[in-house]
Amino acid sequence: MEQEDYSKIYEYESMGKEYAGEKACISLTSWKARINTVSKTLYSLVKMCPGFHIVLVLSKDEFPLKEKELPDNLMLFVENKLIELFWIKPNLKSFKKVLFTMDKYRDIPVIGADDDCLYTSNYAQELYNKWTNHKDSIILYRNTNDKHLQGPNTLYPPSCFSINKNLMENLNSFRKKNNSDDTFFTTVAKNNHLNFFFLNHNSLPFVFHDEIAPIHPNYKHQSYFKNCYL
Protein backbone atom coordinates (compact mmCIF):
# COMPACT_ATOMS: atom_id res chain seq x y z
CA MET A 1 0.00 0.00 0.00
CA GLU A 2 1.33 3.44 -0.91
CA GLN A 3 2.51 5.39 2.13
CA GLU A 4 0.19 8.23 3.04
CA ASP A 5 1.66 11.74 3.05
CA TYR A 6 1.65 13.17 6.57
CA SER A 7 3.90 16.13 5.76
CA LYS A 8 1.24 18.55 6.98
CA ILE A 9 1.21 16.83 10.38
CA TYR A 10 4.93 16.52 11.02
CA GLU A 11 8.27 16.67 9.25
CA TYR A 12 11.40 14.65 9.71
CA GLU A 13 14.88 14.03 8.36
CA SER A 14 17.55 11.55 9.29
CA MET A 15 21.33 11.19 9.27
CA GLY A 16 23.90 8.64 10.34
CA LYS A 17 23.29 4.93 9.85
CA GLU A 18 21.00 3.86 7.05
CA TYR A 19 18.60 0.98 7.55
CA ALA A 20 20.22 -2.19 6.17
CA GLY A 21 17.46 -4.76 6.51
CA GLU A 22 17.75 -5.34 10.25
CA LYS A 23 14.97 -7.45 11.79
CA ALA A 24 13.71 -4.68 14.10
CA CYS A 25 14.37 -1.13 15.32
CA ILE A 26 15.25 0.00 18.82
CA SER A 27 13.92 3.53 19.23
CA LEU A 28 14.48 6.12 21.95
CA THR A 29 14.33 9.85 22.43
CA SER A 30 16.15 12.38 24.59
CA TRP A 31 16.10 16.06 25.55
CA LYS A 32 18.43 18.82 26.72
CA ALA A 33 18.60 17.68 30.34
CA ARG A 34 19.92 14.24 29.29
CA ILE A 35 21.59 14.88 25.97
CA ASN A 36 25.05 14.80 27.57
CA THR A 37 24.51 11.31 29.01
CA VAL A 38 22.44 9.58 26.31
CA SER A 39 25.68 8.27 24.78
CA LYS A 40 25.93 5.93 27.80
CA THR A 41 22.61 4.40 26.83
CA LEU A 42 23.59 4.18 23.18
CA TYR A 43 26.86 2.46 24.09
CA SER A 44 24.98 -0.18 26.08
CA LEU A 45 22.45 -0.76 23.27
CA VAL A 46 25.12 -1.11 20.59
CA LYS A 47 27.09 -3.50 22.78
CA MET A 48 24.24 -5.57 24.20
CA CYS A 49 21.80 -5.63 21.27
CA PRO A 50 23.72 -6.37 18.05
CA GLY A 51 21.73 -6.86 14.88
CA PHE A 52 19.11 -4.18 15.62
CA HIS A 53 18.73 -0.81 13.91
CA ILE A 54 19.00 1.86 16.63
CA VAL A 55 17.15 5.16 16.15
CA LEU A 56 17.52 8.24 18.34
CA VAL A 57 14.63 10.69 17.83
CA LEU A 58 15.27 14.36 18.63
CA SER A 59 13.23 17.49 18.04
CA LYS A 60 14.35 20.32 15.78
CA ASP A 61 12.25 22.62 17.96
CA GLU A 62 14.39 21.80 20.99
CA PHE A 63 17.70 21.75 19.09
CA PRO A 64 17.23 24.36 16.32
CA LEU A 65 20.91 24.12 15.32
CA LYS A 66 20.52 20.33 15.23
CA GLU A 67 23.80 18.39 15.35
CA LYS A 68 25.79 21.57 16.11
CA GLU A 69 24.14 21.55 19.55
CA LEU A 70 24.85 17.90 20.29
CA PRO A 71 27.80 16.67 22.39
CA ASP A 72 30.78 15.06 20.69
CA ASN A 73 30.26 11.76 22.52
CA LEU A 74 26.82 11.47 20.91
CA MET A 75 27.92 12.56 17.45
CA LEU A 76 30.55 9.80 17.43
CA PHE A 77 27.72 7.27 17.20
CA VAL A 78 26.14 9.20 14.32
CA GLU A 79 29.33 9.91 12.37
CA ASN A 80 30.47 6.30 12.68
CA LYS A 81 27.03 5.16 11.47
CA LEU A 82 26.29 3.11 14.56
CA ILE A 83 22.85 4.73 14.98
CA GLU A 84 20.32 6.70 12.95
CA LEU A 85 19.63 10.22 14.20
CA PHE A 86 16.04 11.10 13.42
CA TRP A 87 15.10 14.80 13.52
CA ILE A 88 11.38 15.54 13.83
CA LYS A 89 9.15 18.56 14.18
CA PRO A 90 7.07 19.45 16.20
CA ASN A 91 8.40 18.40 19.59
CA LEU A 92 6.11 15.77 21.12
CA LYS A 93 8.52 15.16 24.01
CA SER A 94 8.33 11.57 25.34
CA PHE A 95 5.58 10.71 22.83
CA LYS A 96 8.12 10.82 20.01
CA LYS A 97 10.04 7.87 21.47
CA VAL A 98 8.58 5.26 19.11
CA LEU A 99 5.69 6.82 17.21
CA PHE A 100 7.59 8.34 14.28
CA THR A 101 10.00 5.42 14.03
CA MET A 102 6.96 3.14 13.68
CA ASP A 103 5.64 5.36 10.90
CA LYS A 104 8.94 5.30 9.00
CA TYR A 105 9.62 1.59 9.49
CA ARG A 106 6.18 0.10 8.98
CA ASP A 107 7.23 -3.45 8.08
CA ILE A 108 9.32 -4.38 11.13
CA PRO A 109 8.79 -4.30 14.91
CA VAL A 110 9.89 -1.25 16.91
CA ILE A 111 11.26 -1.73 20.44
CA GLY A 112 11.27 1.09 22.96
CA ALA A 113 14.31 2.16 24.97
CA ASP A 114 14.83 4.94 27.55
CA ASP A 115 17.64 7.48 27.58
CA ASP A 116 18.37 7.18 31.33
CA CYS A 117 19.13 3.45 31.26
CA LEU A 118 22.14 1.20 30.79
CA TYR A 119 20.96 -2.02 29.17
CA THR A 120 22.47 -5.10 30.77
CA SER A 121 21.22 -7.84 28.42
CA ASN A 122 19.94 -8.35 24.89
CA TYR A 123 16.35 -7.65 25.88
CA ALA A 124 15.53 -6.73 22.26
CA GLN A 125 16.35 -10.24 21.06
CA GLU A 126 14.22 -11.79 23.82
CA LEU A 127 11.27 -9.61 22.85
CA TYR A 128 11.80 -10.33 19.15
CA ASN A 129 12.03 -14.10 19.70
CA LYS A 130 8.71 -14.09 21.51
CA TRP A 131 7.11 -11.87 18.87
CA THR A 132 7.91 -14.38 16.12
CA ASN A 133 5.34 -16.70 17.73
CA HIS A 134 2.87 -13.93 18.65
CA LYS A 135 2.94 -11.56 15.68
CA ASP A 136 -0.41 -9.99 16.46
CA SER A 137 0.71 -8.94 19.95
CA ILE A 138 2.53 -6.17 21.76
CA ILE A 139 5.30 -7.92 23.74
CA LEU A 140 6.15 -6.61 27.21
CA TYR A 141 9.21 -7.45 29.31
CA ARG A 142 7.17 -7.72 32.50
CA ASN A 143 5.94 -10.16 35.15
CA THR A 144 2.42 -8.84 35.51
CA ASN A 145 -0.88 -8.91 33.70
CA ASP A 146 -1.41 -5.20 34.24
CA LYS A 147 -1.75 -4.13 30.62
CA HIS A 148 0.12 -0.85 30.94
CA LEU A 149 2.82 -0.44 28.31
CA GLN A 150 6.32 0.28 29.54
CA GLY A 151 8.36 2.29 27.05
CA PRO A 152 11.87 0.98 27.77
CA ASN A 153 10.94 -2.70 27.45
CA THR A 154 8.10 -3.04 24.95
CA LEU A 155 8.01 -4.40 21.39
CA TYR A 156 5.38 -2.94 19.08
CA PRO A 157 4.46 -5.08 16.04
CA PRO A 158 4.70 -3.62 12.51
CA SER A 159 2.20 -0.84 11.80
CA CYS A 160 1.01 -1.04 15.40
CA PHE A 161 -0.07 2.61 15.35
CA SER A 162 -0.67 4.73 12.27
CA ILE A 163 0.05 8.44 12.32
CA ASN A 164 -2.98 10.26 10.95
CA LYS A 165 -4.86 13.42 11.75
CA ASN A 166 -7.20 11.65 14.15
CA LEU A 167 -4.38 10.13 16.20
CA MET A 168 -2.46 13.42 16.32
CA GLU A 169 -5.54 15.33 17.41
CA ASN A 170 -6.18 12.77 20.16
CA LEU A 171 -2.53 12.94 21.20
CA ASN A 172 -2.54 16.73 21.41
CA SER A 173 -5.74 16.65 23.45
CA PHE A 174 -4.32 13.94 25.75
CA ARG A 175 -1.10 15.90 26.37
CA LYS A 176 -3.06 18.80 27.83
CA LYS A 177 -4.10 16.53 30.72
CA ASN A 178 -1.43 13.83 30.94
CA ASN A 179 2.26 13.59 30.05
CA SER A 180 2.47 9.77 30.14
CA ASP A 181 3.24 8.31 26.72
CA ASP A 182 2.81 4.82 28.20
CA THR A 183 -0.78 5.60 29.19
CA PHE A 184 -1.57 7.07 25.78
CA PHE A 185 -0.18 4.13 23.81
CA THR A 186 -1.94 1.68 26.13
CA THR A 187 -5.25 3.42 25.47
CA VAL A 188 -4.72 3.46 21.71
CA ALA A 189 -3.70 -0.21 21.73
CA LYS A 190 -6.81 -1.22 23.67
CA ASN A 191 -9.03 0.85 21.38
CA ASN A 192 -7.46 -0.93 18.40
CA HIS A 193 -8.10 -4.32 20.08
CA LEU A 194 -4.42 -5.27 20.07
CA ASN A 195 -3.23 -8.27 22.06
CA PHE A 196 -0.63 -8.17 24.84
CA PHE A 197 1.95 -10.84 25.65
CA PHE A 198 4.18 -10.82 28.75
CA LEU A 199 7.63 -12.38 29.05
CA ASN A 200 7.05 -12.81 32.81
CA HIS A 201 10.46 -11.66 33.97
CA ASN A 202 11.05 -10.85 37.62
CA SER A 203 13.61 -8.15 36.84
CA LEU A 204 14.13 -5.53 34.15
CA PRO A 205 16.99 -5.63 31.62
CA PHE A 206 18.48 -2.28 32.58
CA VAL A 207 19.74 -0.12 35.43
CA PHE A 208 19.34 3.65 35.66
CA HIS A 209 22.29 5.98 35.20
CA ASP A 210 20.84 9.44 35.67
CA GLU A 211 21.03 11.77 38.64
CA ILE A 212 17.63 10.65 39.98
CA ALA A 213 18.49 6.98 40.28
CA PRO A 214 22.26 6.43 39.91
CA ILE A 215 23.65 3.16 38.67
CA HIS A 216 23.87 0.58 41.44
CA PRO A 217 27.42 0.53 42.93
CA ASN A 218 27.60 -3.26 42.63
CA TYR A 219 27.90 -2.84 38.86
CA LYS A 220 30.75 -0.35 38.87
CA HIS A 221 33.47 -2.96 39.27
CA GLN A 222 32.50 -4.54 35.94
CA SER A 223 34.64 -3.33 33.05
CA TYR A 224 31.64 -2.91 30.76
CA PHE A 225 30.02 -0.34 33.04
CA LYS A 226 33.33 1.42 33.65
CA ASN A 227 33.47 2.01 29.90
CA CYS A 228 30.10 3.72 30.06
CA TYR A 229 31.60 6.41 32.27
CA LEU A 230 34.50 7.26 29.98
Structural class: alpha/beta
| The CATH homology group name | Spore Coat Polysaccharide Biosynthesis Protein SpsA, Chain A
Supply Rg.
Answer: 17 Å
Q: How many angstroms does the end-to-end distance come to?
A: 46 Å
- CATH class designation: Alpha Beta
Number of strands: 10
Question: Could you please say which CATH topology applies here?
Answer: Spore Coat Polysaccharide Biosynthesis Protein SpsA, Chain A
Question: Main β-sheet: number of strands, strand sense, barrel status?
Answer: 8 strands, mixed
**Low-pLDDT regions:** 1-7, 211-230
Q: Which overall shape is indicated by the principal axes computed on the Cα atoms?
A: globular
Oligomer: single chain
Number of helices: 7
Could you say what the CATH architecture is? Alpha-Beta Complex
Q: Mean of the pLDDT scores?
A: 83
Q: What is the helix fraction of residues, given as a range?
A: 25-40%
- Secondary-structure element order, N to C: EEHEHEHEEHEEHHEEH
* Strand line-up in the sheet with most strands: 1-4-3-2-5-8-7-9
β-strand percent reads 15-25%
Count the domains. 1
